[in-house]
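We emphasize that the prediction below concerns an isolated chain of 326 residues; any contacts that depend on oligomerization or on bound cofactors are therefore not represented. The input was used exactly as deposited, without trimming of termini.
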Amino acid sequence: MRLNLVCRAAMALCLLPASCARRARGPARDDDVLAQVGQGQITARDLKEAMRRRGGADPSVFAARAVKERLLEELIRLEVLAETARRQGYADQPQVRYKIRQLLVASLEEDLLTATPAEDRVTDNDIAAYYQSQLDRFRIPESIRVGSIKIRIPEVVSEPKRAELADKAKRVRDAVTSDNEPAKAFTRLAAQHSDDQATRYKGGDAGWMGREEAAAKWGRPAADALFALASPGDVPPVLETRDAFYVFRLTGKRPADVLPLDKVRENLRLEIARKRRETRLDTFYQASRKDMPVSVNRGLLERIRPPEADRTPDVQPAAPPPMPER
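Result of the prediction step, given as a token string:
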């Protein structure tokens, strides 16, 4: 039986045209058809490209026949499902056409950028010049750190009650300034009297903030008074805002500064390279558009209304069944 099969195979090879026999023995050409799938074909080039994508730095992993067979089967599966999708009309769906266009553009842009790698090189002089042109971005504003004790004023309050709350705030401030250890006294009094639950048990610490942040939190007059304090440990007079009396204690102060170049050098290198790539792509687009007639129906544009929002509820996938117990 085996002999018959061998003989039949040999006869079939003998009946092949000489050119086919030579092709079978010689190296595969890129346009050789490796597999016919419906109306589509998988060529040697397709398999080699898949090896390049999957193999990365070492495509030789596909030298073994079994590995090539598995990769070819993946390509066949892809082609079968793609042809099935085409037959079912998926290629005509707007979202599919849009994704295909996106893929085409991404491939084009990648090739354009890869073709000019020298233009992406950013020197230290480039970075220094760009840093100077963007210096305002790297300015660090003056900032302070304060502790605060908030004595809340109710929305509806009589004048005697307001005076009572103001007197309480003054007594708390006096207790801080008269203590031999004002920092510890402030922490203790904040826990006892502050109506700010976020800072009450943290010694009243409001954290570091700039002038605008302080103004947003306590109002411009309070912010200006706090930034006028000279040294950590200073306690200003009781400050009144719209909804509270405040006892403050300055715990830190940082002058305005500029972030040094060394701190942002690598980020700027990436930013400059990105902007150069964007400029090259935009230049290419503008040149391409000049060679391609574009007309817009402005009247139709005005008549088009946005579609209604999709109110279909999200359907969460069912959880997989639990693993069987051993």
